[in-house]
Amino acid sequence: MQYLPNILFAIALIAGISFFVMNIRKLYRNINLGKKIDRTDNQPERWKNMIKIALGQSKMVKRPFSGFLHIVVYVGFIIINIEVLEIIIDGLFGTHRIFLGFLGDAFYGFLIGTFEILAFLVFVAVIIFWTRRNVANIKRFLSSEMKGWPKADGNMILYFEMVLMTLFIVMNATDTSFQQAGIGNPISQFVAPLFDGFTAETLHLIERAAWWIHILGILVFLNYLYYSKHLHILLAFPNTFFANLNPKGQFTNLESVTNEVKLMMDPDADPYAAPVEGAEEEVPEKFGASDVLDLNKVQLLNAYTCTECGRCTSSCPANLTGKKLSPRKIMMDTRDRLEEVGRNIDANGGAFKEDGKQLLNDYITPEELWACTSCNACVEECPVNIDPLSIIMDMRRYLVMEESAAPQELNSMMTNIENNGAPWPYNQQDRLNWANEE
Fold this sequence. Notes:
This protein is an all-alpha fold. Helices cover 61% and strands 0% of the residues. The protein contains 20 helices and no strands. Helix 1 (4-31) crosses helix 4. It is elongated, with a radius of gyration of 28 Å.
């Protein structure tokens, strides 16, 4: 019975990490359903982007108030969790504050004191975030795509943070020997008097309960990430590394179109040649994208990385003028469809079974796609370098090249360019006729 708590802790730790690894493998599988894309060029610039934007939070502070609060939570999350290492060692080997003996009173007290101050600041920042999200009626949190689960998810993570920070302070406040030592307790010393009337046994029970719930809460939080928008905590780093480094106004050529043009220009190619007997007939490549499997891996990574902060939508000129388009919804819809495809694969033994659905129309409507002005405001605003415009453009390409479903204005313009070499409905020889008019 002496080692029962250690055994239970080890079981909880192994179960929590195993479930997390299983979900990460599923996440990796889903992202790899996308088409290959080479984003390994210019490594120094990519590392610089990751360090500056993901680690340094440089784009968050473009909106100073919310950016500062986010940095407080971000720094607190990283630094306070250093203490998890001590908790794991104590849990596995039955020790108590094992680092105290190694680091000494002064340095250990400095570390725990820093953690307590950060925990308090994180708690305050989270309260402000909750107020902004639920009371202040900030427009970007009131959009239609933020109803139901997205709203609950945003609040859930705030509640998690509140509870974890509170448990950390209570754990320290009820640790009698720690409080008597008078080290590393700048916040918990003011909470400790709340427990003055309790017996030593009760204090120990509260401290142990706070310790257990704190570490189990961290394991639950770790596994909650996969189901939450807060997956960006992990994915912001690869997402910024693999971000598009080309100028924002530069669009890519479709490889499928490029191959067709090369075939047309190759005098030795015979597009009408009969297939070799016994050879597997190739499926013609689709132009553009109508479903998540037509998108590339970085676009799918973008979808999972989306923080649902709404900075993109709040800066979108189409959305600001009342159009249906919301770049945030484009990313959320892409992620939801990708998750649906992943569940389909899991249910059918590792192979996707056609379900009669696709990203286009079932999730994202042509009205949303054609409302986009391709101004790149959403790309510029995103704090983790997500590119909603690339998905919009690929889906537009599908509408034009596969379904001939462009708006009439665009069809007229493209017909004029094809026939007259310009978007206007005039023959080239007649363009200067206006100059001869009296």
